[in-house]
Amino acid sequence: MRVRHLQTHLADQGLVNSGPLRDLRNVSVGVDAVFWLRSIQALKDPFADALGGIPPGIFGFVDKELEQFKDNNITPYFVFQGVAPGPQHSMFVSRMDHQMDLAWKYLAHGERSAAQKCFAVSTSRINGDFVYFIFHHLRQKGYECFQAPYFAGAQLAHFAEQNLVQTIFGPPGLLLYGVKTVIIHLNFSQNTFDWVDLDSVLNKWQLSWDSFVEACMLAGTEYCLTYPYLNLSGQATTQQQQARFNFEAAVYIIKQGPLIDWMGHFPSEEMKADHVDGYCICKVLVQNSPVLHLQDYAIRPLGACKPGDSPPPVPSDFAAIMGQKLPPALYYLMLHGIISHKLPQALAKGEWTDKSQPLVDTREFRCLLEDLQDYRRVSLGLVAQHLHKSFQNKRILCKAYWEPNIIRTVIGDKVPPNARVLEPLISEGLRWKITKSAVQAEMQRQKVDKVDFRFCLQWHAHEYENDGPLIQGLKDPGPIQYDADLRCLTSLVHFIVLERLALIDDEEGAPTVLGDVLKDTPSVLTEPCLMALELMKYGTLNGDPFEAPPAIPPESEKPFPVDVQYPDGNKLQGDERDRVCCTFLLCRVMSLVPMRLKNVMWDSDVDFDLAAFHALVRILKRSLRQLVEGALANILLKDLSKVKLLPKGFMCASPQKDYPNTPAELPPFMLPRACMGIVVKFFLDYKGPAESFKSDMTKRFQCCAQPMEDLKLALSFWEDITRCVDSIAERLEGVQDLSEQMRKATDNILRPQRERLNL
User: pLDDT tens, 205-239?
Assistant: First the structure.
């Protein structure tokens, strides 16, 4: 839990101690994983969000940090956040919007350094996708990783109490859970570490532990607002409030009387309601956060309290904050990282929150987010199918960043009018029967050694044409069957996902038009092609300029930054429209192909249109990843013993030397970043001589490992997508316009430039 200005005040008061790193040799350290990731300076790439949300060189930077632990004989035990309630308020959103507008303005005027600073303060690289990939990377590397059932901090406090770890590395807010000592900084370059001691803090400030917790709450956390009289007057700017706020004032106030005494003193009743609820929630989360108790491996409240005291009672409306308790089998899958916390959280809390506004907010993004409710319902249904009826019938309130405050702040099962609600979609599906001998025989026939979407589509098509065993009895009653073998399990997950994506007909088990074209795409391009087809399915694969989001309410209209000079699709006509749309389409489509990047920050510009496009790609990939998790959970909830079939890196997207292979056995849907689209734009706009193109591109994109080879792969991808779209257009309605737009892009822009540059 983050406490406003606590760390700054601890430093000002001389309560941050320093020690030599050798004192931690042979010590087991519980690590708050997200706090640790935020401390790695190399990951703070300002352009990461504009490129698609994942910093280039992500795994290399993390590996260097891991080597430091190893070199210093420190054993880290990484703990990740679980089903934690979302923050109760969003502070400084308007300031971040302003900073984003400034960033694009500076970039449009060539002021890259100023733009980077604005991007850095207005975006977060440590987002949910990033954390997901790091979790599985650490597992693949052999590190101990644990996804807490709820709060990482509370779980770490329990691990320290039980001596599973000897100390904790995390934010000073861990002191709220009664942790005696917290390491707040590891300085490997100077061989030192900084730490704080709870008893020293309490002694110096002359506070009891209860009073310390209440002072932190008055100062403000992500669950409770700062006590109003600790801020300046309403006329003060946010920067002034940040500069003048002092944690010591919170300590002074709480010394005059306990928190309850101050709850009657607010400037207005409306402000009182906003604050009091937050303080109550925060107090409950500190005292009663559920953790996995090591004594009996049960999930129950931590019971944070002074030594010797009995744990505080759990409030009767605890479920309104934390959600319904989940069945042990689902906790088991979550604790071991088999499934991330999003689907269990939605089933427990009855809410699905999309709180993060994309770097470029568009009407298309909001429409796609609403359309993806279909996949979310399917994913939730796959998990809920083997749970209690209360989960199967759960009404889940959708909360997005653009919706009214009455929807975003509701707690419990109250559903405001006009709110979006989804329910798990439970369907029986096809009765697949996968045997080890059949998988081996098909691998020999296709001459491949890995299960992926192409393998399964090719296998299915071959069996369908020849009326083979794979398609026999797909509609028969009875359970799905598979041999206790990794490849059988991964084949089954792939087939369930293909079925739910309508790439295999879920009524008759026949190939669909989309599945038929995708099966002929080379394996190296299958996932980018699948993404293109999914975007096409939702009507978002085209070259039309994006539109600014609708104004809700009307006075909140927020057009795109003027300095970007982004084209207005309603004003484009004739040849100019064709040129703009064809260029956008070429760059967007080819940006789906990942580039190989060195372990350095992106050293070129970013593109406004591609940043908007990759906001769509990100939420779609996230939904597909959740569909994979739902399919896997659906299988394993019937028999948890099959978990042992999965290797540690079964969802690890870390690149290997034999590019583009990864350790993943199931599709993790790694974000591709917009880098290839930016390189393609450079290629399309290039006016120099053909003989200089390769050297000029290498100089322009020095962080790209092999830009020419990757560009050639992207060009072959364009050809394959053209084949797919043309084939679909011949058999289905509604795709002809895209096919024609792709033909124009090829004939009028791409082919002439390829011929001129001899590509």
Answer: 999 999 999 999 888 888 888 888 787 544 444 44
- Length of the chain equals 759
| Contact of 480 with 637, CB cutoff 8 Å | no
Amino acid 658: pLDDT: 73
64 pLDDT band, cuts 50/70/90, is: very high
What residue has token string 């500076």? 106
Neighbours of 108 (CB within 10 A): 17
Cis-peptide into 522, omega within 30 deg: no
- How many CB atoms neighbour CB 419 within 10 A? 15
> In this structure, is the dihedral angle defined by the CA atoms of residues 643, 645, 647 and 650, taken in order, positive or negative?
negative
User: Quick one: DSSP state of residue 393?
Assistant: T
Query: Which pair of tokens denotes residue 509?
Result: 């088990």
Please list, in sequence order, all residues whose beta carbon lies within 8 angstroms of the beta carbon of residue 640, skipping any fewer than 6 positions away.
329, 332, 333
Q: For 427-468, how does the pLDDT look when each residue is reduced to its tens digit (9 = 90+)?
A: 989 999 999 999 999 999 999 999 999 999 999 999 999 999
Outline where 258-341 has alpha helix (H): 259-262, 269-288, 318-322, 328-335
Terminal CA-CA length for the chain? 54
Asked if 711 and 596 count as a contact pair (C-beta separation under 8 A), the reply is no
Q: What's the distance, CA 272 to chain centroid?
A: 34
504 Cβ neighbours under 8 A, 6+ residues apart: 430, 457, 460, 495, 498, 510, 511, 512, 515
306's CB contacts (< 8 A; 6+ apart) are 178, 208, 209, 210
The answer, yes or no, to whether the previous bond of 660 is cis (omega within 30 of 0) is yes
Backbone angles phi, psi at 321, to 5 degrees: -90, -50
Cis preceding-peptide flag for 567 (omega within 30 of 0)? no
Q: What is the CA radius of gyration of the chain?
A: 27
At residue 236, the pLDDT reads 42
Q: Is residue 130 over pLDDT 80?
A: yes
pLDDT in tens, 149-168: 999 999 999 999 999 999 99
Residues pairing with 145 in the sheet: 78
Q: What angle do CA 244, 220, 308 make, to 5 degrees?
A: 130
Query: How many CB atoms within 10 Å of residue 343?
Result: 26
SS3 content of the chain, % helix, strand, coil (to 5): 50, 10, 40
* DSSP type of residue 449: S
Alpha carbon dihedral 93, 97, 98, 101, in 10-degree steps, equals 170
Q: State mean pLDDT over 647-651.
A: 94
Give the domains, in start order, of the chain with CATH numbers. 6-301 (3.40.50.1010), 433-505 (no CATH)
Q: What pLDDT, in 10s, does the model give residues 89-104?
A: 544 344 467 788 888 8
pLDDT of residue 87: 65
Can you tell me whether residue 528 is helix, strand or coil?
helix
Q: Which of 622, 592, 669, 129 is nearest to 372 (CA)?
A: 622
For residues 188 and 49, what is the distance between their CA atoms, to the nearest angstrom?
A: 27
Contact by Cβ (8 Å): 29, 193 = no
